[in-house]
Amino acid sequence: RHSVRWILLIAYLMGLSIGVHLLNLLTIPAMCYIFYFKKYSKPSWKGIVLVGALSLVLLGIIMSGIIPWVVKLAGLFELFFINTAGLPFNSGTIIYFILLIGGIIWGLYFTKKKKKSLANTLILAFTFILIGYSSFLMLIIRSNADTTIDENNPDNAINLLAYLNREQYGDWPILYGNYYNAPVTSRKDGTPVYSKDSKVGRYVITDPKTGQIPVYDSRFMTLFPRMWSGNSKEQEEGYKNWVDIKGTPISVESQESGQETINKPTFGENLQFFFRYQLNFMYWRYFMWNFAGKQNDIQGMGKSESKNGDIVHGNWISGIPFIDESRLGPQSNLPENAKNKGRNAFYFLPLILGLVGLYFHFKENYKDGIVIAFLFFMTGLAIVLYLNQYAPQPRERDYSYAASFYAFAIWIGLGVLALFTKLTEVTEKKVKPIFSAIVITLVCLLLVPGIMAKDGWDDHDRSGRYEVLHIASDYLNSCAPNAILFTNGDNDTFPLWYAQEVEGIRTDVRVCNLSLLQTDWYIDEMKRKAYLSDPVPFSLNRDKYKSGTLDLVYFIDNPEVVDTNKFYNLKDLIKFVSSDNPNTKFQSQIGPLEYFPTKKFSLPVDKEKVLKNGTVPKDQADNIVNSINWKLERNGIQKNHLMVLDLLAHFDWDRPVYFALTIGDENYLDLQPYFQLEGLAYRLVPVIDTSTNGTTGRVNTAIMYDNLMNKFKTRIDNPKLYYSDDFLRMTVNIRNVYGRLAEALLDEGKKDSAVAVCNRCLEMMPDKAVPYNYFVMPFIDVFYQTNHRDKGRQILQRLMDLYKQDLDYYYSFTGIKAQQVEREKQIALGIIQRVTQVSAHYKETAIQQQSKMLFDKYYKRYVEETGGNN
């Protein structure tokens, strides 16, 4: 009975944990060992190994069996009873759960009656897993309410399965698979994607997945593939930078280039990448951050970008000079730009105390030690094995392994007990145990959590930080009423969602995430009203954008269909692409393809409307173009960009359309000549930008001045607050928009307003909180040209001082380490050179002479080191 209680408790906790996060299942082996050691007071090593193996099997059954198949069977029932039996939606799911619950009740009754205790316990355990797992019903209930934010739309069993399987993140090999450069020999069919079609009252196949799964050359397959992803040149170069891949040459037949030779990595090289990158760089480096020390919070790339490596960003340190300097170069006389609140030195003390505790734990009670060791392994190194990360990763991944660091922290606590025990043994009866306990506790508190708090508190404390909300508010307030704002990625979008959903800020603006716009469920949501925002005016119906449809549309100039010298109405071209007429398809070797017969688009402009609704101010009436004519320079577009073109073809200038500054040039669809900067977003306007200063978008000074000076809330002026590196990158955009506005005002002769803009920016983002960088250069020009020379001189001097520190520091590196900071040298030299030019222009002789001497001194060394080749 005691054993049954333990099994049921484990089962219930496992089921409940699924609703929190699937990673909680990794505690199963540790809990199995707790049960085993509780039941058997004298365990054998054979039993320990067997329990470890069985716990992994149990984990596999739950993760690969119960979790997906409970929902998958519900989906199969739903498909059968709706598509075959003709019942209403959700009938199959209801029938399935009635049968499932009935089967459980019957099974419990039958096994109890027949006294089959093991089978009864297994059914109970399964039941308790389901009870915990039922927390996922919340997702279905919420999704059926059609909430404004409803990612993946898991409103039925079929969609829920895709959500649980994390299909949006793709798939990757773990135990067996292909190398990154494996040739594709053929393609096989995948699992069809079904979607609910309310019109016909059944589930229809929206994406048959015909011929979409690549089959790789068997000679390039391997056990335990670690260098597997070849989706981009960047990843391929990442592998080559981490491992000197010589490989094994294999001759292959290619459709594109005929016979060619490809160097397949050897299994030894595959393992080198595993140990160097996945284990050492992507786990042990994070482990050392927590228990030895951290260089800074700037993302480290290691050898992902250069074989020379990266020794100034995101490495672990100890705080012990000779150890750190042997690995990372000089650690004294750090420049201000390298003095980062994320820099923590723990002197190995947490690590040492943890290792002492680990040894003591296994010595005193190896059974408990095994439990914690399995918890440490499963929540750390096992995740490394499972994730199989390629290089480079888009961000640091230390958060993935937090649970393993918690496990190690248990050994740190036991390390205190180990020291107390040893001190008691050494002193015998000379010192009272209570006195030893007090001394050891105080010493350990001071040397471990005390030092960790001293160095780590400032970069873990988030109190008083509301800037993310303020920046989100500023993004929304950059837009005119009822606007559509295109963003891209989580960091761009989630703060804006929060600002609207929780704070109620600018709910008239429709935030449209370009990353999600590749999915049919998100397009469905965009076609619904949200808050005060009207639906997005897409013309394509669901049959045209459902999963597997128009995922990729090619650009193929076809003189038989269009005059390649003319621009064509975008609305007509969208109709062409979405037409079912076989004549609108390009006949290729792999079958008919949707395509644009030209890259030259035309978007007509209703001059009267754009003047009346304020898209263009009346004083710019003469500059309005009859139509926006542009050429899209690419070979094809994905569904998200096709939907943007569909919107532009049909919005008829009724609503403002904006593109966030941070979404990247590829998402601007070559429309930059018609962009107008009004804040932290560009507005599409039918006025061509004639400026030649190399910046994107014309500046509407009236609108932008009002936004920045009266509506923007961001203030990053408290040096005591922690601003992480990813947050500080956003400050570049903020300084840039203030600088561009100030320059534009100066060009218009509005000197007082230009100065006011510069002063506002320097006030809300002073050097003491965000050190000056290249993007304060426009302020220098404004101050000098408006006779505020003291302010201009102050910024120039400060820039020179900051980057002099950088040059002095980086040129103290020697040998191979000097090559590893080459990029930092180039940046500092470039800014010093710019300071020299600006100070010469404004006749600041003293600064000019200092900066020129500094530049000449270090540029000479730079040429000597590089041979002038870079």
Radius of gyration over C-alpha positions, nearest whole angstrom: 32 Å
Low-confidence stretches: none
Given the helix and strand composition, which structural class is it? Answer: alpha/beta
The percent of residues in helical segments reads: 40-55%
Mean pLDDT: 91
- Lateral arrangement of strands in the main beta sheet: 12-11-20-22-21-23
Which sheet architecture does the biggest sheet show? 6 strands, mixed
Task: Provide a count of the helices.
Answer: 31
Number of strands: 23
Using the alpha-carbon principal axes, give the shape.
globular
Distance between the termini: 75 Å
Beta-strand percentage range: 5-15%
Explain this structure to me?
This protein is of the alpha/beta class and 870 residues long. The strands form eight sheets. It has a six-stranded mixed β-sheet, with helices on both faces. A four-stranded mixed β-sheet has the order 15-16-13-19. The chain has a three-stranded mixed β-sheet with strand order 14-17-18. Helix 1 (2-20) packs parallel to helix 5, helix 12 (366-378) packs antiparallel against helix 14 and helix 27 packs antiparallel against helix 28. The longest helix is centred in the first third of the chain and has 40 residues, at 45-84. It is globular. The relative contact order is 0.06.
